Amino acid sequence: MDNPDDVGNSRSRRGTSHHWSQPCDKIAHDETNTVESLSTNILTPVSIANSYMQDVKVNYSKVLQNKSWDELANMYQGIGDQELAFLKTKSEAVPGDFNSQLQNSYEKMQRLAVGIEQVTLDQALYQGSFLEHFREIETHIVKILCLLHFAMVHRNLTPSVTINKEDMPQEYRDVEGQSAAREFRDFMILDNYFKSLQNLIQVFTEFENKRGPQ
């Protein structure tokens, strides 16, 4: 079974290709790949990212408001859109359909990559204490995107939606440094990212354990 080529080097650099559009290069098609093996490939970086987020959640919420993650989530309920508009996918994830789940997952993670990049940029601009954490999250999300793209190539699929940084409106980008609005935006992006990781684990674990044609 082949593997994606040089995932780490495909990470976005300022002034080069955006990582959500070109997460990896030189993917060779291998007829021996199955739904089960492709799902296993996807679950590897997702599980690593999920473990990392478990630690980030604890530290981030304490530094932000000296609260638990769940307390922060409850506090933000009702303040605004609990899934920021630009994070909402246009593609449909059909239960039990591997191809639609791939395309929907790829779109969702691309949208999250756009948001996380902006959070990282603001962490750098305002000298945030979680800059290195968000850089690590960027690395994780690129690896996940690469493995999703890898699976899509082997299923002869293309992205259902083209995502650009402009999909994140200026109202979410132009947020003042140490403001409550920025805290809310950053938390909601992280929370959506964490929930998406949980969903990926559930979805592709089911496919990993299935047998027979998909």
The whole-number mean of residue pLDDT values reads 85
At the fold tier of CATH, the topology name is: Growth Hormone, Chain: A
* β-strand number: 0
The ordered string of helix (H) and strand (E) elements is HHHHHH
| Main beta-sheet strand count, sense and barrel state | none
Give the second-level CATH assignment, the architecture: Up-down Bundle
What count of helical segments does DSSP give?
6
Task: Kindly provide the name of the CATH class.
Answer: Mainly Alpha
N-end to C-end Cα span: 19 Å
Number of domains: 1
Region (Disordered): 1-24
Characterize this entry briefly:
Residues 1-24 are annotated as: Disordered. Helix content is 58%, strand content 0%. It is mainly alpha-helical and 214 residues long.
Q: Main traits of this protein?
A:
mainly alpha, Growth Hormone, Chain: A, 6 helices
Give a description of the structure:
The chain is mainly alpha-helical. It has one domain (30-208): Growth Hormone, Chain: A (Up-down Bundle), CATH 1.20.1250.10. The protein has helices spanning 35-65, 69-76, 98-125, 131-154, 170-173, 180-208. The chain is globular, with a radius of gyration of 17 Å.
Secondary-structure blueprint of this entry?
Blueprint: H1 35-65, H2 69-76, H3 98-125, H4 131-154, H5 170-173, H6 180-208
